[in-house]
Structures are given as structure tokens and as C-alpha cells.
Amino acid sequence: MPSWVMGTKVIYFDNAATSGRKPVTVSHAICDCLKHANANPGRSGHSLSVKAAEIIYSCREILGELFNFPKTENIVLTKNATEALNLALYGGLKNGCEVITTSMEHNSVLRPLNHLHNKGIIRLYILSADGNGVVHPKQIKEAITEDTSLIVVTSASNVTGTKMDLQGIYHAAQEAGVKMLVDGAQGAGALRIDLKETPFDFLAVTGHKHLFGPQGTGALIIKNADDLDSFMRGGTGSQSEMTIHPDFPPDKYEAGTLNTPGYAGLVAGIRFILDEGLEKIVGYEHELTEYLLGKLADIEEIQLYAPDADRVATVSFNIQGTPPSDVAYFLDREWGICARSGLHCAPEAHKTLGTFSGGTIRFSFSFFNTKEEIDSAIEALKDFVKHR
């Protein structure tokens, strides 16, 4: 039995994968939905169905509030960021399109793009990031040609936490008349995204990471619904007399029954962020990250990646000469510390950093972590170095 089991709580440092601890209001909202609104939204006229539909509407409204996007009918609810990204890519790219993306992207971007490229539908250009995981707006601007249709960029790397200069890239895209898709999986709730200031054509987000919602929730926010076809069709509850799928948002993109209890939880998660204040949450997570970086610097055997990055609360490192999986296993079994090891579904990022194919150890924080937990993790890493 692991030594930490008796009387010691688990320390969860894998929030870039899924936020481990949620506000209590999230589980309450999910349970309340199952008890009092457990019906199909938009399909029936009875009171429970109406309540379910109100939850769905509230979810669009609060997403619009968080990202300053008032056109809520263009907020398409999905089951995660991957579905949102696929909807934007397969629904928006036509034969002969040219796409620019970066080496720091998650496989949720790279796999669909490579699939379209390998089938001869698009031309794909992947720009290499620097040692801090940054692709600069100037690189994007220089790569744009008259054939470029779309720029796809992450808001923040899930490997290093590196923030991309979304505003600078947006201005480069706007100047060239090129559409822009932002993968907001790591940025939504971890940095400020204001769609009035930077009205990206598409923003894909997931609910289960920094928005504190449950798994199985996400959204694609679309500037202009005319730019995007649907890749799934079926029942919507609207225009049921027709055997042709509705052509108006959001029904155009939301075939089938939605995850109403999940979206109830997502509403509660985002409400927590708005009530606490995004600036307060981001500031605290930055404080934790800086604290960790300072502590890691005292361990000679630690190799830190993207050392000078402007980052969200995600840090990748290795212990020299040791597979990251061994370190993560030790942290889990001996200290009850949940961390991620490996390639983090971003192989091109690891090639950029020189950590392919073993990957890295990743610590990622949320508003619910503490400096005391970081102190325990540093003690654990020192223990590993001493006895390896």
C-alpha cells in the first residue's frame, strides 16, 4: 500500500487535463438538474422540458458574459474542445484551403488538420516555436500568402503553459483578411479573452478544465454562422416537420440531445469565476506558478522547459537522466501527488522542446491549490533525487 494512503489527502497537480477540484456549487447544480429538470430541452412543452431549456439558454448566456460575446445564438454547445475544433475545421475548410498553425498545438488541432492535408483537401504549414514555446505574430504575418484561409493557434500550450500573443496574431490575420480559430482549451478561465477586443472568427473552449465544469461540456463560439457548415445532422426539436436539418444557429450545429446536467454544472463553474473575479483567480494561479519555479530552481537536477515563458499555471520539467514516467509514478505511489507525464497529446511541441519521445513531467495548478502542496511536491522531488 502506498505510504501516503493513511491520513494524507491527495495533491492534485493535473488541472491542465481536468480541474480536479470543483466549486461545491457545480455538483449541486448537476444534482439539482437531475432532480428538478431531468427532461429533454427544446423537445416538449411541459414544465420540466422548459426548465431544461432554460439551463441550456443560461449556459449560452454565461459563456457570452465571460467572453464578452452578446450574440448567444452563435454559441454552439459541444461535448469538449475537440468537438468544437473539429466542427470549425471540417465545417469551415474547403478544398484548396491553405492553413497556418504552430508546433505547440494539441493533437485536437494537428490530427484533423493532418487528416485534411493527407487527403489533399488543404495545404498545411506548421510554424516552429522558439525555446519558450512562442510563435510570434511576425512569423505568422510572414507566412501568410494570398491563398491562406485560416490561422489556427492555441491560447496557451498544454505542455509549457506558454501564452500565445493572441492579440498580435489577430491583428496580423485581420490585416491580411484571414480567418482565425483559437483553441481556448488551456486559456479559457486561465487568461482574459475578450471577443469584443479581439473578435476571433472561432473560439473553441472546453468546460472541464479552467472553467470548473464537468467533463462532457464545451463550446464553439462563431463570429459569423454563414462561414460554417455542420458536420452532424439529426433531431433538434425545431422544424420537426422537415426532413432537412435547420440552417440557423445554434440548431444548425446541435443535433441530438444535449448534456443538460453537464451544462448546469458548467453554468455554476463559470458563475464561480465571475463571482470571484477572473483577475483574482489568474493572479493567484500566477503566484503559485512563480512560487513553484523558484523552488524548482533550487534543485540542481531539474531541467525546466520554456524557462522564460509568459505562462498560465502549467510547468513542464524533467529530472536529468530519469524517465518522466518513473518520477510521476513515484510521486503518485509514495506521496499522493497526481501529476502528468509523457507527451501530453502534443508531439510537435515536444519536438520543439527536445523532449520527444519521453516527454516531460507536468504540474498544472488551479485556484484550489496551495503553496503548502507545492512545498510537499518539492520535498517529494528532493526525496526522489536522493534515492534514485
Give the strand line-up of the largest sheet.
2-8-7-6-5-3-4
Question: If you consult CATH, what is the topology of the largest domain?
Answer: Aspartate Aminotransferase, domain 2
Q: What is the rounded Rg?
A: 22 Å
Task: Tell me, rounded to a whole number, the average pLDDT.
Answer: 95
Helical segment tally?
Answer: 11
Class per helix and strand makeup: alpha/beta
Question: How would you concisely characterize the structure shown here?
Answer:
Helix content is 38%, strand content 15%. The protein is an alpha/beta fold. It folds into two domains: 11-22 and 278-387, Aspartate Aminotransferase, domain 1; 24-276, Aspartate Aminotransferase, domain 2, CATH 3.40.640.
